[in-house]
Amino acid sequence: MGADLPGVAAGFVDRCRAAGLPVGPDGAQRFAGAVVAVAPGTAARLLSCARATLVSDPAQLPLLDAVFAEVFGGLTDDVRRGDPTAPPTEDGKPDDGAGPGRRVGGAAGGGAPRGAPGGRGKGPAREVGMPVAASGAERLADRDFDALGPDELALLAVAMRRFRLATPPRRSRRTRRAAHGQHVDLRRTLRAARRTGGDPVRLARRARRSVPRRLVVLCDISGSMEPWARALLQLLYCATGAQRAEVFTFATRLTRLTRVMARTSPAVALERAARLAPDWSGGTRIGEALGRFLDLHGGGMARGAVVLVVSDGWETGDPAELARQMARLRRRAHRIVWANPRTRHAGYRPLVGGMAAAWPYCDAVVSAHRLDALDELVAALRGAGRDSRPAG
């Protein structure tokens, strides 16, 4: 038996909130009230209820539609669910549009409506069951990012939230209480000694904290990288919340996007990033962009950090300049990971151009070209395993 509408509505609101939509308890209450009042007979009408009650900004519509498609993507809209005037099926009963094993109608055996307001209509109760077909994200997992449209990319936002871009830990200068720390906490030791007549019977100790290393992302937004840049910037938003990563884009110039990508939905973040970076889909000068980053931020931001470079390595500048800047970055960064979607081909070799110049300075090179290849990127950032570069 399918779940009643208010129950399904509550579950759908939870999925929207997990995907990044700012839906509070009042929005959930409005949506549940709208569902009960309208008793939508089609997925389209249910989507209209969601749009009217859960969205406060038109820019949030693509994300809402993506979550709706993932949750209710198995429902059909060509006939009205539970409508007695719908064309009959092979067994002579009105078609409810739900297909075998999935109903959008009343309880089994024609029982009383569940969750429907009293006195509304005489037809069978409408229930929306959760789709049993594979989710949209699962269907897109093995497709390259450059083959996905904007709506399909937005659908992957929910799936990308299961990833966690963790970096290796480092020892901080700050300390914490520890039973067997290397440093004596004099203040706490003397405070405790007041209870033992001034004799420090027990030494209080402290140890240095371990904190994750900073993640710095340099993303190529040239014309050849535009589809993958959008996908990986969306991954950064979904997997880190954008507050623990420093994000820069480059093509012919360097643009910092850290603040732009904070506290908003992935679709809005990408739209703002495209407006802020005037060289989006332009040429590529990787060496010049790296030099600019190191001159402005290399002293503090790159030191001891994990640096992720997202680029196909097509350099329009001098490859020797790129090699020189990569050597500078190598001396400051803890780890350099290069995400190049063209390495997905088994026969790829860095023989010429910018990738050949950068290759010796990378700790790992991964493809990250589709959803089911992102685990390799996550492991490379974490420092798991050995050098993951193909043989040069």
Strand percent estimate: 5-15%
Q: What does the average pLDDT come to?
A: 75
Alpha carbon gap, first and last residue: 58 Å
Main beta sheet, described? 6 strands, mixed
What is the CATH first-level class name of the largest domain?
Alpha Beta
Shape: flat
Q: What is the CATH homologous superfamily assignment of the largest domain?
A: von Willebrand factor, type A domain
Radius of gyration, in angstroms, nearest whole number: 27 Å
Total helical segments: 13
Secondary-structure element series? HHHHHHEEHEEHEEHHEHEHEH
Q: Care to count the β-strands? A: 9
CATH architecture of the largest domain: 3-Layer(aba) Sandwich
* Number of structural domains: 3
The portion of residues assigned to helices is 25-40%
CATH topology of the largest domain: Rossmann fold
**What order do the strands of the largest sheet run in, or round the barrel if closed?**
6-5-4-7-8-9
Protein name: VWA domain-containing protein
InterPro entries: UCP010256 (IPR011195), Uncharacterised_CoxE (IPR008912), VWF_A (IPR002035), vWFA_dom_sf (IPR036465)
Pfam family, one: VWA_CoxE
Descriptive key words:
392 residues; alpha/beta; Rossmann fold; six-stranded mixed sheet; 37% helix
Please sum up the structure shown.
This protein has 392 residues and is α/β, with parallel strands linked by helices.
